[in-house]
Structures are given as structure tokens and as C-alpha cells.
Amino acid sequence: MATLSMDPRLSRRTTDFLSSDHRMLIDGRFVAAESGKTLPVYNPATGEVITQVPEAEAEDVNRAVTAARRAFDEGPWPRMSPSERGRVLWKIADLVEEHLEEFAELESLDNGKPFSVARVADVPLTVDMFRYMSGWATKISGKTLPLSAGYDYHSYTLREPIGVVAQIIPWNFPLLMAAWKLAPALACGCTIVLKLAEQTPLSGLRLAQLLDEAGLPAGVVNVITGYGEGAGAPLAAHEMVDKVAFTGSTEVGKLIVKAAAGNLKKVTLELGGKSPVLVFPDAKTDSAIQGTASAIFFNHGQCCCAGSRLYVHEKVFDEVVDGVSHLANEIQLAPGMDPSCQMGPLVSDEQYHRVVGYIESGIEEGANIAAGGPVSGVDRGWFVRPTVLTNTNPRMKVVQEEIFGPVVCAVPFSDKDIDAIVKRANDTIYGLAASVWTENLSLAHKVARCLRAGTVWVNCHNVFDASLPFGGYKQSGWGREMGEEVLNNYLQTKAVTVAL
Ligand code: NAP
Ligand code: MG
After folding, report:
1. How many angstroms separate the CA atoms of 77 and 189, rounded?
2. Which of 102, 155, 360, 378 is most buried, taking the most CB atoms under 10 A from its CB?
3. In the 8-state DSSP scheme, what is residue 63?
4. For residue 8, what pLDDT is reported?
């Protein structure tokens, strides 16, 4: 079945997995979809079908939710000692680490990203996330509270798991997004139904096998594959689900909120962005050029926090934009598994057309192409050249909307007034991230305060850590991923008062 099993660069472990019959994890068993239907998984570097995975529909979702419900209401997981839960999370981290190369290969094949990047970023960050959350399992606690009503009461809070959690993730960092969702929910004692993205189900299905091996009781984590409408929508609407945690587009985020209204399940959302990058004239030019290029081109621009609006002071505008354009022109496009690959293909035919459509709309609306453009020059696969647009204006679609590809709009500013620059940076419905490039410490901190974004980087971009909360202001989302803060997504507080 696996047409790529002949690729000599793939390890034996990966070819064995690819040629196996792919199954979803439901109630501790590996199963096909009830209907027997499957959906194709593509290699974005060639457009070929790699393999098939189950296509879950409402009845499969129902089976998975029922299992998670039973595991929460009757099973050992929420009642297990925190240290035992922590040990299971640590074990999951060890298992993922043991399979680092295999996961990096699967991620590269399925998503298109360079193997070298998956190997040093996606997989190690996944391991870190499970380890970090393993530590939190034993540190979740309530408070004792003095009551104004007087000393005749003893009051305290309990921090309890929220219950059955539906988690829906996208395709840009398939394994890492699974870890961002699973690890904190498990640390809190929740049970889970995780829906993988249709475009990138492979690493999540392999992870499901390791979760089983790590000793998670049946039904604690259920992993399903399927389409958004067929599997995601019934999961988000399911009456037995207590909470839905979603990462993806703002558009689908709004559908999730509506679907959740039926039983008023709790919702957290990690959505899109149009993140500004501000380069001031005193910035170190070389590192600003390198850093702002990687802010947009890392992961082919398929990052919710991609630095897609580049505001550069007019004094250094030409130098910075020429530098970023030069780097863009040098980037080697190749299949992710090719050792020469610096940028792989976009994830899907749909994303390819979407991104090329944006570049064309920019040109039609009067933008200039400083690097890249709509033609990649690669004859197969969903490749888009890293593209730099200049001469844009704030009303253009390319400046307003999230492209989710390697396309940056460079805009000069002359303002001396920080408020005016910040106002332009904040002129978006999104508020996920921003970066500021300057050697002026005071300016950096002032601007960081004024930016309406959940993350602000200074002289860097795309720095992630399990300890750092990540999430959006405005229409970029509700709640935070990672750090101590993510625990709030999966816990609820009970106040207990005892009359003495
Ligand atoms: P998307 O449609 O929002 O998909 C994200 C997840 O939601 C996937 O698992 C998807 O399933 C599922 N889904 C889709 N419709 C659903 C529904 N009605 N109910 C429940 N779940 C549903 O994102 P996309 O289509 O993959 O990408 C489109 C755009 O979203 C991108 O161009 C980008 O702008 C944005 N995006 C943002 C992020 C982020 O990290 N914030 C990540 C990816 C994409 P299937 O994909 O399996 O159908
Ligand atoms: Mg979709």
C-alpha cells in the first residue's frame, strides 16, 4: 500500500509503520471506522497517495466519546495518584524520544517540512511538553481561604479535572499540536478524544500506539482520524463532552463555539494570526534580516504566529528588504526528506492554491514582487517560493488576511511616534504574536507593552517553550496553551466550606 516504502532514506521502523494497516485508538483497541471508509494521505512533495487511514464519522465519534466518558466517570485515571499520572507522562516522553527519527520522518513525509527541522524542533519540543507536564501533575493544588464571614468556617478550593475533553488539531505541527493538547489534559486527569487533521494523521496514529505502550488505561485517550465536517463537527457538538480545545482557523473556531452551545461545554481556541514584525533603525541589521526572514519562512509560513507583516523604518528599509529577499531567493526548495531541503512543499493542494491565489491577488491590487512570486519552478508537488511583497497598502487582502504560507508584506514606516507605529501593528482582527527588533532596551519594553498580542518577542521570533504561555488576544483565540496557564483549560475549581 505504501508507495514510498521504497524510498531508501526512510528507516525500517517508518516503512514498517507506513505499510501497516492504520487504525484509530478507541477504548484501548485499534479499530477501523465503523463504516469501513478510509481517507487518503498524500505526500505533498509529489502529490501521490502514501497510504489510507480510517474516516471516522458520527458513530465512531460516539464510540470514542462514550469510552472517554466511561474512563472519566468510572476508570482509574482521574483517581490515580498525581505521581503515577506524572510517571505515565514521563514514560510517553521517553517513548517519543526513543522514536525521534521515525517521528521526524513521518512528519516530513506527511506535512512536507524538512526532516532536519522536524528532528530538531517538532519532535524534541513534543518530548519537552510531555516532560514539563509530567512535573505539573503533582503540583496542581487549591488554596485555603480566610472568609470575611468569620472564623467559624474553614474554606478551601479543590482543582478538579474538567472531564471529557474533545481536542481538534491542525496539520502545521501535527505531533507537537497533539502534545500541546494531550499533555496538560492528562496531567490534570481528564480523558480525551483527539481528532487529527485529515492532511497529517500519521504521526498522531503512531503516537497513539506509544500511548498504549506507556500504559494509559483504556479510553483515557482516544485518537480518531476523519474530516472536519464528518468527525470534528459531531465531536464538538457531542452532549457527553465537557470541553472542547481547538487549534485551527478563526473561521472554524467560530463554528466550534456554535457547536459547543448545545450543552454549554467549555471552549478554548488557538486561532490564526497576522503577526507584525517591527524593525527599528538601530536594530542589528544582519540579525534582523536573518530573524525576520525566518519569522515568516520557518515551516513555510504555515505558523499561526508567522511574522507576515514586516514594518521596517525607512532608514533601513531597503537594506532589510533586500537582505530578506536575497535570503528568500537562496532558499533551496526540495522534498522534506531530501538532505538539500531548506523549504519543503506546502501541506496540500488546497493550501497551494490558497497561497498562490493570495500572491496573485497582491499583484492585481498593485503590490510589487521583491522575491518569489506565484510560479515555483518545481514541476511537481505543492511548492511555493518564499515571497516578499512591497508597495502594499493596509486595505489589501494580503495585508489584512492570514495567508498561512511563505509570503511577507514589507512596509516602510517613518513615524517617530511609537504610538503611530504600534497603531499600525495593532490594526488587525488578530492578536497572536509580534516581534520587535531594536537595540534600545527602553523602546523594546515600551513597544512590548503596547502591542495587543499574546506573545511578544524582542530580537527573536518563533521561540517556543513548554513553560511559556502561548495564545491570542482579539480573534486569535480564547485561553492559553503551555506553561502553568494551560492547566486552567482543563481544570475547574470547587469551593468547599465547612462550618466548624
Ligand atoms: P481548519 O479547517 O480550521 O482545520 C483545523 C482542524 O479543525 C482540522 O482538524 C479540521 O479537520 C477541523 N475542522 C474543520 N472543520 C471543522 C468543523 N466544522 N468542526 C470541527 N472541526 C473542524 O484549518 P485548515 O482548513 O486546515 O486550514 C485553513 C486555514 O486555517 C489556514 O490557511 C490557516 O489560515 C488556518 N490555520 C491556522 C492554524 C493555527 O495554528 N492557528 C493551523 C492550521 C490552519 P480536517 O482538516 O481534518 O478537515
Ligand atoms: Mg480543513
Report:
1. 6
2. 102
3. H
4. 85
pLDDT in tens, 187-245: 999 999 999 999 999 999 999 999 999 999 999 999 999 999 999 999 999 999 999 99
User: What is the per-residue DSSP string for 299-366?
Assistant: GGG--TT-EEEEEEETTTHHHHHHHHHHHHHHPPB--TTSTT-SB---S-HHHHHHHHHHHHHHHHTT
- How many degrees, rounded to 5, is the angle at CA 141 between CA 137 and CA 147? 170
| Amino acid in the structure at residue 228 | G
Q: What angle do CA 368, 373, 378 make, to 5 degrees?
A: 165
* Residue 34 DSSP one-character state: T
H/E stretch holding 258 reads helix 250-260
φ, ψ of residue 309 in degrees (nearest 5): -120, 110
Domains with residue ranges and CATH for the chain: 2-271+477-496 (3.40.605.10), 276-465 (3.40.309.10)
Going edge to edge, which strands form the sheet with 29-31?
29-31, 24-26, 221-224, 191-195, 164-168, 243-247, 266-270, 477-478
Q: Which amino acids bring their CB within 6 angstroms of ligand 1? A: 168-172, 195, 197-198, 227-229, 232-233, 236, 247-249, 252, 255-256, 270-272, 304, 354, 402, 404
| Rounded distance between C-alpha atoms, residue 102 and residue 209, angstroms | 13
Residue from 190, 304, 305, 341 carrying the catalytic annotation: 304
pLDDT by residue (tens digit) across 138-164? Answer: 999 999 999 998 889 999 999 999 999
Residue-wise pLDDT for 348-361, tens only, equals 999 999 999 999 99
Q: Using 50, 70 and 90 to split pLDDT, how confident is the model at 6? A: low
**CA–centroid distance, residue 88 to ligand 1 (Å):** 30
Give which of 277, 308, 242, 314 is closest to 434, Cα–Cα.
277
Q: pLDDT digit string (tens) for 75-103?
A: 999 999 999 999 999 999 999 999 999 99
